[in-house]
Write a structure and sequence with these properties.
The structure holds 2 protein chains of 2 kinds. By secondary structure, chain A is an all-beta fold. Chain A contains no helices and 11 strands.
Chain lengths: ~110, ~110
């Protein structure tokens, strides 16, 4: 069974840093693109970043470019999102998603910047 | 960036109704579109991929159509479990973009 499970969310002050993790199981993690998507309270979904299966290429939304870094450790089947220079408007539930077409999602982890 | 315009933003309907939600892309995206259902406090669940392919396990009352710039999600006969928020997602090119969402509630 495909599973992805996020962790690492919490409360952080503006300007601070946080690293999210996503543990994956049930599929060949190294061969799949992985993305982060977020949802601010009461708002819609916003795609944040993607990393190719091999980890060689990454893409970011303009809203996080230069502040967030996506990475993956294929030996640990884990996806990461390093978030620096956090702002109040980064407050959201962050979802880890599998595949180029975002076919499976984790339950999310909440990041509060205040 | 490709903009996705989803309509309507909200919809009231009754059990048994047929409803349609539309997404328009600001430029052609081929069939690079998915539809997601989200219930309060839960992660989105994919219903449709590649514009018209039904996700395994999703009831056949859900269907998707379209290509290029205009896409629709149709629910043929609403069931109580279908009252939720629906989003389209274009995954044809980066940055991926979502529609604004359609909140479907019971009339």
């Amino acid at each position: 069974e495909v599973q992805v499970l996020e962790s690492g969310g919490g409360l952080v002050q503006p300007g601070g840093s946080l690293r999210l993790s996503c543990a994956a199981s049930g599929f060949a993690f190294s061969t799949y693109d992985m993305s982060w998507v977020r949802q601010a309270p009461g708002r819609g979904l916003e795609w944040v970043s993607v990393i190719r299966g091999s980890g060689g290429s990454t893409y970011y939304a303009d809203s996080v470019k230069g502040r967030f870094t996506i990475s993956k450790d294929n030996s640990k089947n884990t996806l990461y999102l390093q978030m620096n220079s956090l702002r109040v408007d980064d407050t959201a539930v962050y979802y880890c998603t599998k595949g180029a077409w975002l076919d499976a999602w984790g339950p999310g982890t909440t990041v509060t910047v205040s | 960036d490709i903009q996705m315009t989803q309509s309507p933003s909200s919809l009231s309907a009754s059990v048994g109704d047929r409803i349609t939600i539309t997404c328009r892309a600001s430029q052609g995206i081929g069939n690079g579109l998915g539809w997601y259902q989200q219930k309060p406090g839960k992660a989105p669940k994919r219903l449709i991929y590649a514009a018209s392919s039904l996700e395994s396990g999703v009831p056949s009352r859900f269907s998707g159509s379209g290509s290029g710039t205009e896409f629709t999600l149709t629910i043929s006969s609403l069931q109580p479990a279908d009252f939720a928020t629906y989003y389209c997602l274009q995954h044809n090119s980066f940055p991926f973009t979502f529609g604004q969402g359609t909140k479907l509630d019971i009339k």
